[in-house]
Amino acid sequence: MGTCSFLTRARGLLRIRNQLARECLGLRWGCIPLLQTITLSSAAQKVTFFETKGNLLTSYLGGALAVMVGIYTAGGISGAHMNPAFSLAMCLIEQFPWWKFPIYVVVQTLASFISAGAVYILYYDAIWHYSNGTLTVSGPQETASIFATYPADYVSIANGFLDQVIGTGVLMVGVMGLMDTRNKPVPKGLEPVVVALLVLSIECSMGANCGCPLNPARDFGPRLFTYLAGWGPEVFRWVEGRERGG
How far is residue 127's CA from residue 182's CA, in Å, rounded to a whole number? Predict the structure, then answer.
């Protein structure tokens, strides 16, 4: 009885009652860490093991399933706002308050940055072994693409921008359609599965040009991490025609 009473009091003291704080923690410790850690780890496993323990399909599948797990884990708390583009879309249709938007973007980016750090630690030995001790953004043994997406050699800035506008637009329209109760409803509880399949379909059909990031926080947070961790300022440059590795 004494132990139960102590645990009850401890839960009461540790409980966070502020709704915004709960939502931010849901993003920070629920949705995004799971999404990012699984997604980036899928890429790390593919790259650092020379595609012997993963390939493009497993990387896409890992990312899509990570979306599903993130929504199931913390969707009820934060609304599963794992993407600033989704948060912006919700603001535009007046389903989300504008004053929360910058707060969510900061939390989304910070969580992505920390998740990149976790993956770097997890695959630290593999990254340094694969890269022969040199962290590069281009070349046959580059490792920057584990954390952020980079364009194919032939893609111009204009084409890359349009690629992301279309891909993100398809994602937003698809999610909005799935959420619209006037459409054919998704069976209750299976919404995350259907969203994951939508993400997988976009990755499989629109991932060739730029790697299909579709998420500013998912791209910028890890890219900033690689800049600070030793890859250097080239992670922020768009260099057409550069040599890219696997």
Answer: 48
CB 141 within 8 A of CB 245: yes
Residue 175: count of CB within 10 angstroms of its CB? 21
pLDDT at 7 over 70: no
CA 200, 49, 109 angle in degrees (round to 5)? 50
**Residues whose CB is less than 8 angstroms from the CB of residue 170 and which lie 6 or more positions away in sequence, other chains included:** 202, 206
At 8-41, the pLDDT tens digits run 655 554 455 556 555 555 555 555 677 788 999 9
99: which DSSP letter? G
Q: How far apart are CA 146 and CA 41, in angstroms?
A: 8
Q: Whole-structure pTM over 0.90, yes or no?
A: no
The two structure tokens encoding residue 182: 């006037």
The Cβ-side half-sphere exposure at 12, using a 13 Å CA radius, reads 6
Sole residue written with tokens 């966070």: 16
Cα separation, 152 vs 139, whole angstroms: 13
CB burial class (10 A; 0-12, 13-18, 19+) of residue 141?
Answer: middle
Q: Which domains does the chain have, with CATH numbers?
A: 17-236 (1.20.1080.10)
What pLDDT, in 10s, does the model give residues 220-242?
999 999 999 999 999 998 754 44
